[in-house]
């Protein structure tokens, strides 16, 4: 089995056809229903079952899938949720330099000390989910040439809305950059198709 998949449950369904079984995922629960009806020479036969399982916290509900093995067992599986990124990578900087990056449920915020640079010497760029801040200062006085530069690179979580990035430069020389995080979609119910495994 795929190492990123988790087996949630197995159900014996030898007496059922795939079209007699339904599987629904809603509000963190999986409901499996089966109903079989057949007419025979001596009458009719009806059988049914209902099962409910809780989606494990480590499984993405939208990834739940099912398959029926050749020996008549329904396997219900799901993919692991990717770990949440709670820290933002700051390349080439430290807290000692006055850099502070934070991320919470609603937004990403970074504060940078750029007091050694004027506003027109600072550039803020976004590309995909990456944020780059650069500053460069050059001056010449009494035959002495001075050059300073500043580079910061951030890789943000995928759910940060890069179109919402704004930056503000305070009078204290600190640059504050903010971006909103996209809200998670509400739980939705969906029908999961049941497929038969091929003979090996």
Automatic annotation (TrEMBL):
Gene3D superfamilies the record matches: 2.60.40.790
GO terms for CC? cytoplasm; nucleus
Q: Which InterPro entries match?
A: A-crystallin/Hsp20_dom, Alpha-crystallin/sHSP_animal, HSP20-like_chaperone
GO term, biological process aspect, one: response to heat
Tell me the Pfam families matching this sequence: HSP20 (PF00011)
The signal sequence is none
* Residue intervals of the SHSP domain: 1-89, 90-197
GO MF annotations, alphabetized? unfolded protein binding
Q: What protein family does this chain belong to?
A: Belongs to the small heat shock protein (HSP20) family.
Instruction: Kindly provide the name given to this protein in its UniProt entry.
Output: SHSP domain-containing protein
Q: Supply the source organism for this entry.
A: Exaiptasia diaphana (Tropical sea anemone)
Its organism's taxonomic lineage begins at:
Eukaryota, Metazoa, Cnidaria, Anthozoa, Hexacorallia
